[in-house]
Write a structure and sequence with these properties.
about 170 residues; alpha+beta; three-stranded mixed β-sheet; about 20% helix; globular; disordered N terminus
Length: about 170
């Protein structure tokens, strides 16, 4: 748990949503992504302000192919802060908490994809742009989207020095 200014608390859960906040998380995911429930994940992080769910993100361990080499990383997704609480540092606090938690649990790195408008937020929080496109397996088909792929490494493997035309992120998150 993280306590920021006695207002923000972040709860970490493994494999399932925290039961007492499940309905609020579902509402946040619907309003942010039109998604009623997250796909399977290894960890989720729920941001609370004065007991109210204001943010959420999830991470799933994946073997990610970058430059035709597989790497065990966590795919981070569904990062959101409720619209009325944005631009106050809560998103950065939630992301930084997730990054530290994953590092402390033997994670070698984190990869994510996002809309082009979100790239400055993630680069300001230590991520590096490695590709302009992501590929997924959706319903048994490989599909590509034009969302940039960003990477955060805990070690100096040099993966971020390579520019990939597209990065395969496994099943859609």
């Amino acid at each position: 748990m993280l306590n920021m200014e006695a207002q923000l608390m972040i709860i970490t859960a493994s494999k399932k949503l925290p039961e007492e906040y499940k309905n609020d998380i579902h509402c946040l995911l619907i309003s942010s992504f039109n998604l009623s429930a997250p796909p399977p994940f290894d960890y989720c992080f729920t941001a609370l302000r004065n007991g109210e769910v204001i943010g959420f993100c999830a991470a799933a361990k994946r073997s990610i192919s970058v430059i035709k080499m597989d790497h065990e990383l966590f795919l981070l997704g569904l990062c959101t802060i409720d619209e009325k609480h944005r631009k106050r540092g809560y998103g950065s606090a939630l992301l930084q908490y997730a990054v530290l938690h994953l590092r402390d649990n033997n994670c070698k790195g984190i990869i994510l994809n996002c809309g082009k408008d979100r790239v400055p937020f993630y680069t300001a929080n230590g991520f590096k742009l490695i590709s302009e496109k992501a590929r997924y397996s959706r319903n048994g088909h490989i599909e590509e989207d034009n969302d940039p792929v960003l990477l955060y490494l805990y070690s100096d493997e040099g993966m971020e020095d390579f520019y990939a035309d597209s990065v395969f992120l496994g099943t859609d998150f």
